[in-house]
Specification:
With 188 residues, this protein is of the alpha+beta class. The protein contains 2 helices and 8 strands, in the order ααββββββββ. A hairpin with a 6-residue loop joins β5 and β6.
Length: 188
């Protein structure tokens, strides 16, 4: 009886461990926030191929999104992962946190993503003009982060605070800093 209970606990433990694992950079190094409005936030092969040979999956310097008019367009680069038999991403979140001491708030959730989209360039995965925090005024600063899961693995732990620069389990290509200009984008 003790052996059966031990084996059951071991199997449950492995399942819990597997569901808490994160994507590896080898499989997910082309999943990132690419730009906010027209400001690039991650130097990737699409724009700066000279940087890719030096990127081994470790965090690299990513510029913040800078001062932006609202509502802001978040451009995301995501690949479906299906080319190697890996499960497709089934859920993606955008979250923001007001600096210096706000808490993370989910402002956009996608489930069962449509992988017929053209992911050869950054896309408006979460829709146009998606970032417009309530009550934001000129000079307010926010961190925005991208989270995704294939139903088993996730890119980073949502319970971990993601600082600017991505020096935790959050990589800096998944986190960007936006400063509010106080202006509204024309025609919106």
């Amino acid at each position: 009886m003790k052996m059966k209970a031990f084996l059951t606990l071991m199997v449950l433990g492995l399942g819990i461990c597997a569901s808490a694992c994160w994507f590896t950079e080898l499989n997910f190094n082309r999943h990132y926030i690419a730009k906010v409005n027209m400001a690039y936030t991650f130097y990737c092969a699409d724009y700066h191929p000279e940087l890719i040979p030096t990127w081994t999956g470790n965090p690299i310097s990513c510029p913040p999104a800078g001062i932006q008019d609202m509502p802001a367009q978040i451009w995301v680069k995501l690949q479906p992962r299906s080319e190697e038999g890996a499960p497709a991403i089934t859920e993606a979140l955008l979250q923001y946190k007001k600096l210096p001491s706000g808490t993370w708030t989910t402002f956009k959730t996608l489930r069962q993503l449509n992988w017929t989209m053209d992911f050869s360039k950054p896309v408006q995965l979460f829709g146009p003009n998606v970032f417009d925090p309530p009550g934001a005024v000129a000079g307010n600063q926010y961190l925005v982060r991208l989270w995704f899961s294939d139903g088993v693995f996730e890119n980073a732990d949502l319970d971990v605070n993601a600082p600017e620069g991505g020096d935790t389990v959050w990589r800096n290509q998944w986190v960007t800093k936006i400063t509010i200009s106080g202006k509204r984008r024309p025609g919106l």
